[in-house]
Amino acid sequence: xxxxxxxxxxxxxxxxxxxxxxxxxxxxxxxxxxxxxxxxxxxxxxxxxxxxxxxxxxxxxxxxxxxxxxxxxxxxxxxxxxxxxxxxxxxxxxxxxxxxxxxxxxxxxxxxxxxxxxxxxxxxxxxxxxxxxxxxxxxxxxxxxxxxxxxxxxxxxxxxxxxxxxxxxxxxxxxxxxxxxxxxx
Length: 185
Fold this sequence. Notes:
Layout: E1 2-11, E2 18-24, H1 29-40, E3 48-53, E4 59-64, H2 83-90, E5 93-98, E6 104-116, E7 131-136, H3 176-180
Antiparallel strand pairs: 1-2, 1-6, 2-7, 3-4, 3-5, 5-6
């Protein structure tokens, strides 16, 4: 008997859009990654990561698609972590981010586990997994925009506007003479 895991993959958008995907415990996070892209109709070819999460959906430890040598990997890469290991380490909730420029963001929640006999049952063979069990909502054509918890500034400079304000930390205007008083290196 093999254990399968059914995940609800919820797109972070205003509309309700989700997929239920079932995988065998011996498959890896790379299999889940590919199933998410396929089921949501998203073109492959960009970097992605899974993140451990808690009941409040806070982002925890990362499992990237590839080791870029930029951080310490506590769990390895997606092709190294099985679904069974991921659930044992992380629990029921995790986050998935695809394309770090567009930020397709998904909430991943384990909704059930099943025992299946993959050795004798012709209708359940390992090649049938991962499989999409349920589809709800329409695939958006573009990644939903992200606010990242800050109010959007529409004055023109966006994220870096405050870096160019001509006021110091005390709210006082800069004096051009003060700037000229700095030593030249």
